[in-house]
Amino acid sequence: MFMFEKAIVGSRKYWIWILMLLAVMGAGFLAYGRQWDQGLGITGLSRDVTWGLYIAQFAFLVGIAASSIIVVLPFYLYDYKAFGKIAILAEFLAISSITMGVLFVFVDMGQPMRILNVLRYPAPGSMMFWDMISILGYLIMNAFITLATLRAEQKFEAPPRWLKPVVLISIPWAVGMRTVSTLLYSGLPGRSFWLTAILAPRSLVTAFAAGSALLILICLVMRNLTRFEAGKDAIEKLAQVVAYGLLINLFFVLMEIFTVFYSGIPGHMEPFEYLFMGLNGHAAMVPWMWTAILLAAVAALILLPPRARKKEGVLWVASISTIISLWIDKGVGLIAGGFIPSPLGAVTDYVPTIPEIAIALGIWAFGLLLLTVFYRITLSVREANA
Fold first, then answer.
1. pLDDT tens figures, 36-73
2. What distance in Å separates the CA atoms of residue 84 and residue 208, rounded to the nearest whole number?
3. How many domains is the chain built from?
4. What is the SS3 assignment for 279?
5. Mind spelling out the 3-state secondary structure of 42-85?
6. Under 8 Å CB-to-CB from 223, ≥6 apart: which residues?
7. Tell me, what's the pLDDT at 285?
8. Exposure class string for 345-356: b at 16+ Cβ within 10 A, else e
9. CA-closest candidate to residue 359, choices 104, 168, 154
10. Tens of pLDDT, residues 268-301
11. Which of 52, 103, 284, 352 has the fewest other C-beta atoms within 10 Å?
12. 33 alpha-carbon distance from chain centroid
């Protein structure tokens, strides 16, 4: 296949990394075999909490995929040269993230083949239908963009003329994809935590911050392990996006807290109480949510001074803090807050089981394997052209 032979050439460390990912994938596959045989009863899901770790990962990863426009838009639309080296890395990150997200939806289904019913029996009135269309469309566009870009680099040619229109379409498509995925939650009237008009804007802002932080981390890892250098300007701009994104998200959170508690409506207050203070003796999410708040505050504060964005140590700490914080906030916290308490007021804690965690880790390992292979091919092409 196209240039995939370049992915089977690497150092000893490269192959140790690949074998580690395959081992984690194998453990996840075995755990999924058990779930396939025994059903979702082996997970921590219940009658009151029907979405858990799997959908939390989906919510987080769709945001990561959409965040690629932070690099793609300035580079292709405004010819911002600093992002030239990392534009294709962002596109490959989007492809890997979407693939993982789709797999998480697949394993969340008791009978996975039923997911095809969304296409077999299209229902334009359903947000699930539009979510699938937006995700598959974005995946296809990114696949064409990366394929055409790599072919052009390999042949020392300019990218084909049709590429720019596809890229331009992919930019609003990414925003729409993230928005539609969020509307799956905020369109449910019985879930007070999700019933807010700023859920989609918050999700977009946190997606841009988390995706930029992850891309910074990838650039730093590649700088230390390979001869790839993203460029100081590119990394500093991404760090700026992370800092401002975290601050805007904090503003949105404060607006939600004011609206919820000033209005005094119990149904809207209780999810926040459960997440941050505990409710009726149930406080499983409290340490997680305060950890997310603390890490976000640390990352935003240390990235605000422009000089700090030039220091690699600061970038490591801020990027890791941001990713963990927003993985909690826009992953587990988002899902738990929507389901707990239930519309009838029942408080049922959700704790993922070992098989559930193993399956999730297996899918993450598969996504990292895809990312590793894609980046290995990209670096090989660029080294050959150097």
1. 999 999 999 998 999 999 999 999 999 999 999 999 98
2. 18
3. 1
4. strand
5. HCCCCCCCCCCHHHHHHHHHHHHHHCCHHHHHHHHHHCCHHHCC
6. 229, 230
7. 92
8. eebeebebbebb
9. 104
10. 999 999 999 999 889 999 999 999 999 999 999 9
11. 284
12. 25
Closest by Cα among 199, 189, 237 to 86: 237
Structure tokens at 225: 């392990």
How far is residue 319's CA from residue 62's CA, in Å, rounded to a whole number?
18
Smallest CA-to-CA distance from 58 within 104, 91, 110, 92 is with: 104
Quick one: tokens of 117?
């019913």
Instruction: Name the token pair of 92.
Output: 């490959």
The span from the CA of 68 to the CA of 75, in Å, is 11
CB atoms within 10 A of CB 197: 7
For position 47, which CATH number holds?
A: 1.20.1630.10
The sign of the torsion formed by the CA atoms of 173, 4, 159, 73 equals positive
Rounded Cα distance between 248 and 271, Å, is 22
Q: What share of the chain is helix, strand, coil (3-state, %, to 5)?
A: 75, 0, 20
pLDDT at 10: 67
Q: What is the mean pLDDT of the chain?
A: 90
Task: Kindly state the average pLDDT of the residues 175-191.
Answer: 88
Q: What is the pLDDT of residue 3?
A: 62
pLDDT tens by residue, 98-146 = 999 999 999 998 888 888 888 788 888 888 888 899 999 999 999 999 9
Structure confidence at residue 111 (pLDDT): 81
Give me the amino acid identity at 167.
V
Encoding tokens for residue 185? 């939650």
Q: How many CA atoms lie within 13 A of 294 on its CB side?
A: 7
Predicted TM-score (pTM) of the model is 0.93
DSSP string, 349-385: -----HHHHHHHHHHHHHHHHHHHHHHHHHHHHHHHH
Q: What pLDDT shows up at residue 261?
A: 94
Phi and psi, residue 187, nearest 5° = -90, 5
Tokens found for residue 226: 């390979």
Q: What is the pLDDT of residue 4?
A: 63
What is the model's pLDDT at position 114?
81
Residue labelled with tokens 């503003």 = 251
Name the token pair of 291.
């950890």
- Domain residues for 305? 4-385
The pLDDT of residue 179: 93
How many of the other CB atoms lie within 10 Å of CB of 114?
10
How many CB atoms are located within 10 Å of the residue 229 CB? Answer: 12
Q: Which residue has the tokens 């193993």?
A: 358
